[in-house]
Specification:
Blueprint (H helix, E strand, L loop, with lengths): L1 H6 L2 H24 L22 H13 L15 E6 L3 H12 L4 E4 L15 E2 L3 H9 L3 H20 L4 E10 L4 H16 L8 E4 H7 L10 E10 L1 H14 L3 E3 L2 E8 L5 E8 L5 E11 L5 H8 L7 E11 L9 E4 L8 E6 L2 E10 L10 H12 L15 E10 L15 E4 L4 E5 L6 H15 L27 H9 L3 H11 L3 H6 L14 E3 L2 E4 H10 L5 H8 L2 H4 L1 H19 L3 H17 L4 H4 L11 H20 L12 E2 L5 E2 L3 H12 L1 E2 L5 E4 L3 H5 L10 H11 L5 E2 L1 H13 L23
Parallel strand pairs: 1-2, 1-10, 2-7, 4-12, 10-17
Antiparallel strand pairs: 3-6, 4-6, 5-6, 8-9, 9-10, 11-14, 11-15, 12-13, 13-14, 16-17, 18-19, 20-21, 22-23, 23-24
The structure holds flavin-adenine dinucleotide and 2-acetamido-2-deoxy-beta-D-glucopyranose (4 copies).
One 2-acetamido-2-deoxy-beta-D-glucopyranose binds next to helix 19.
Keywords: Calcium, FAD, Flavoprotein, Membrane, Metal-binding, Mitochondrion, Oxidoreductase, Repeat, Transit peptide, Transmembrane, Transmembrane helix
EC number: 1.1.5.3
Catalytic activity: a quinone + sn-glycerol 3-phosphate = dihydroxyacetone phosphate + a quinol
């Protein structure tokens, strides 16, 4: 009785009730604590209201109109509304972000980009939306308040990023492999700090994994010496699609934007203040003036040349460094888990991330010179491969031939011109107003583009006296980008039901265009087959379809084949060879839209192949004879092509040029491709040198191979260095090889492009100076 009494006493009841409430409350909090994907604001089962942006011609007209009024006619003052409030130079992440911000405040904005939108660094980033775990180490363990603020701001921006562009970004778990026991508490504490800092902006909490679990989720990882792993969460996005989405959002808000228009001169008024610029259309060569109350230079790594235009005595403020990325086939990483080592032997970061179905691997922070088309050198590519190999299980041979695409991005590391020289580089972005009133914004990172834009436009309003012109303060943390409103994760089902697309294609469209995917689909021509009803693929292995090309031209200002292959779709970043194969189709559709002549199509193909060469297209495809030919339209062009071909054969006949080699068609053992006759030549050479082994198999010594290949056409240039590299890669260190192995070696030699390489001095840039990237 007494016991029962005790059990049901008020006190116990109070404890039990309190405990239950706490558990329920905690459980409720836990269940709701995860990141909630923002809900769509409109129905996602039907297409949103159609919207067509103004054409490039209309944009140009408006730009020109602003300059005309500089000449006073019949004494009337220049009309106010023709002049722009702001002219933004540069259409990368920073420029586009500023345009969205300014336009959403009600300013009249023009943005000019000399290449394509995002053609600079903004399409060549690592594609992470991150707070920077790497900087955290400094913040926490060295109590560096500046670093702490940086991480905190980035984490805040990360959440806004995922909300304003939900279809272009997603969460990605990233694994930090741990090879030493003492690192476990260190990394764990670091990641927990990251979670705590993120607070309610966190995505998912980080967790520790045992060695066994780590190998289960990432079987390709080297198990030798592995102690465990830590998993934390960051965001990932499609960078150049994001860039285009920003540009289109600015257009929707009323900004005037053009690509392929370069600012060639800055104009000053009587008091030496900037009041306009001279702009040159790169397609026609035409030049005109644009008037604006203020000019913002958002030219990224090219900032210095703009500042020099403004003041010839100016000291460089940008110290560029480059980051190299390579794309590998998807079997090198799990589909939904990245890998990152924040501290390699030489202090750089190496990462390994799934992206659009393939894997991107790379490193950051190699000092570089500013060039317009930075290229990943052969040495850089091999260095990344070397690093990657050291993380993977020894039974995996990552080969040079696996590299599907490679690129290099320039990172503008900013030096503060005001600071003493010795103070070095500023860590984040910098806003600088020159004497003549040129507002420069440089540095920062993709993740914080919005915060940078907010700060820049705040400054612009102050500097250029635009207080009377703005309608509101900054609202970009709630402005959702074009394509977001009527998008949901399940929108692709509606697309399939309406248009009869393949599932993979529908998902791809929904993830890249958001609710604009409806418009893309409306441009698709029926395939004429039973299934799919719409959506003819540009190339069978990737879900990019014909309608995307039309959409890119009509709705996203794509003007060259490269725009479509590299930035509207991401094919050239995923697989340069696939982009090469899709090229004739892309050019054909664009010709339809833009009215290109046969000659123009040829020119486009040539330029695109050259570009793909910088993205790691195999050297054999770069040869002019292997370029694809445009598809002729109508009889005029057939005649033209006939004449052109006849001329070529005539040259062959009289012996001035050689017959075009057969296309690469004969397959060797394995996956190497050989030209007709090549295999026979190799077999012949092989036979001349072999000696029978004890077991009756014909073999040659590896040391003889170089000699042997000297006589084979196409292989005479192979150097010992290349051969050693290939032998090493394939695991033939020494000894003798049989015919199949010999052919494998020859095949690999073909994949390693024979570029002369210079050994660069690998210098490292310390974390706190590494600017934007990972
Ligand atoms: C390797 C690497 C990896 C990175 N990874 C990440 C990452 O994972 N996450 C992240 O948040 N950030 C990352 N960053 C940082 C991020 O990519 C950059 O901070 C951002 O893209 C910079 O954008 P921007 O607009 O300033 O420069 P850019 O994109 O280079 O844009 C400048 C534009 O100005 C144009 N221009 C130049 N001169 C003129 C002229 N006279 N007239 C008209 N136009 C002109 C150029 O053509 C160019 O398009 C990375 C950077 C690098 C280099
Ligand atoms: C456009 O720019 C390219 C690259 O800078 C240049 O080679 C070309 O001449 C320019 N075209 C015109 C018409 O100015
Ligand atoms: C890359 O594209 C080429 C050409 O379409 C294709 O043969 C190859 O299989 C692709 N590679 C991968 C890994 O998808
Ligand atoms: C971060 C990222 O890669 N986002 C999306 C980009 O597009 C592909 C499809 O093409 C999606 O799978 C990704 O989620
Ligand atoms: C208006 C102006 O001076 N534009 C400059 C911007 O920066 C680039 C740097 O490459 C210069 O070429 C432009 O002339």
């Amino acid at each position: 009785m007494a016991i029962l009494h005790r059990i049901f006493s008020r006190r116990t009841l109070a404890y039990v009730t309190g405990g239950t409430a706490a558990v329920l409350g905690g459980g409720y909090w836990y269940l709701n604590s995860g990141p909630a994907y923002p809900v769509p604001t409109k129905t996602t089962r039907r297409p949103p209201p159609p919207w067509s942006p103004p054409s490039r011609a209309e944009m140009l007209k408006e730009l020109k109109a602003s300059g005309k009024v500089t000449t006073f006619k019949s004494g009337s003052p220049p009309s106010e509304d023709q002049e722009f409030d702001l002219l933004i130079v540069g259409g990368g992440a920073t420029g586009a972000g500023c345009a969205v911000d300014a336009a959403s405040r009600g300013l009249r904005v023009a943005l000019v980009e000399r290449d394509d939108f995002g053609a600079g660094t903004s399409s060549k980033s690592t594609k992470l939306v991150h707070g920077g775990v790497r900087y955290l180490q400094k913040a926490v363990f060295e109590l560096d308040y500046e670093q702490y603020k940086l991480v905190n701001e980035a984490l805040h921006e990360r959440r806004i990023f995922l909300q304003t562009a939900p279809y272009l970004s997603n969460m990605l778990p990233i694994m930090l492999p741990i090879y030493k026991y003492w690192q476990v508490p260190y990394y764990w504490a670091g990641c927990k700090m990251y979670d705590i800092l993120a607070g309610k902006e966190n995505m998912e909490t980080s967790y520790l994994m045992t060695k066994g679990k780590a190998l289960e989720t990432f079987p390709m990882l080297k198990s030798n010496g592995l102690v465990g792993a830590l998993v934390y969460y960051d965001g990932q996005h499609n960078d150049s699609r994001m860039n285009i989405a920003l540009v289109m959002t600015a257009v929707k808000l009323g900004a005037v934007v053009t690509n392929y228009c370069e600012v060639t001169q800055l104009h000053k008024d009587g008091q030496g203040k900037l009041n306009g610029a001279r702009v040159k259309d790169n397609l026609t060569g035409e030049e005109w003036n644009v008037r604006a109350k203020g000019i913002i230079n958002a030219t990224g790594p090219f900032t210095d040349s703009l500042l020099t235009l403004d003041n010839p005595a100016h000291q460089p403020i940008v110290q560029p460094s480059s980051g190299i990325h390579i794309t590998l086939p998807n079997y090198y990483s799990p589909r939904k888990m990245g890998l990152l080592d924040p501290a390699t032997s030489d202090g750089r970061v190496i990462f390994f991330l799934p992206w659009q179905g393939n894997t991107i691997a790379g490193t950051t922070d190699t000092p570089a010179r500013v060039t317009r088309d930075p290229q990943a050198s052969e040495d850089d590519i091999r260095w990344v491969l070397e690093e990657v190999r050291s993380y993977l299980s020894p039974d995996i041979k990552v080969r040079r031939g696996d590299v599907l695409s490679a690129w290099s991005g320039l990172r503008p590391l900013v030096r503060n011109p005001g600071a003493e020289k010795t103070e070095g580089l500023v860590r984040n972005h910098m806003i600088h107003v020159s004497e003549s009133g040129l507002l420069t914004i440089a540095g920062g990172k993709w993740t914080t583009y919005r915060a940078m834009a907010e700060e820049t436009i705040d400054q612009a309003v102050k500097t250029f006296g635009l207080d009377g012109r703005v309608k509101s303060g900054c609202v970009t943390d709630t402005v959702r980008l074009v394509g977001s409103d009527a998008w949901s994760r399940n929108m692709f089902i509606g697309l399939i039901q309406t248009y009869g697309l393949e599932t993979e294609v529908a998902k791809h469209l929904s993830d890249n265009y958001g609710d604009r995917a409806w418009t893309v689909c409306s441009l698709a021509e029926p395939t004429g087959e039973r299934w799919p009803l719409h959506g003819r693929r540009l190339i069978s292995s990737y879900p990019f379809i014909d309608a995307e090309v039309r959409y890119a031209v009509r709705h996203e200002y794509a003007l060259t084949a490269i725009d479509v292959l590299a930035r509207r779709t991401r094919l050239s970043f995923l697989n340069a060879t696939a982009a090469f194969e899709a090229l004739p189709t892309v050019v054909d559709i664009m010709a339809d839209e833009l009215g290109w002549s046969y000659r123009e199509r040829r020119r486009q193909i040539k330029a695109a192949v050259k570009f793909l060469g910088t993205m790691g297209l195999p050297a054999t495809l770069m040869v002019e004879d292997n370029h694809p030919e445009p598809i002729p339209k109508g009889w005029m062009e057939r005649v033209e092509r006939g004449v052109w071909r006849a001329g070529k054969s005539a040259l062959v006949l009289v012996g001035l040029t050689k017959e075009k080699a057969d296309r690469l068609d004969a397959f060797g053992p394995g996956r190497s491709m050989f030209e007709g006759g090549e295999l026979a030549a190799l077999r012949h050479t092989f036979a001349t040198r072999t000696t029978k082994n004890g077991d009756g198999v014909e073999k040659v010594g590896t040391e003889e191979i170089l000699e042997l290949l000297k006589d084979v056409p196409g292989y005479s240039e192979v150097s010992k260095k290349e051969l050693d590299y290939v032998l090493d890669e394939a695991g033939f260190k020494d000894g003798r090889v049989n015919f199949d192995e010999f052919i494998e070696i020859c095949g690999n030699l073909k994949e390693v492009s024979f570029t002369p390489s210079s050994v660069t001095n690998r210098m490292t840039i310390p974390v706190e100076k590494s600017g934007g990237g990972v």
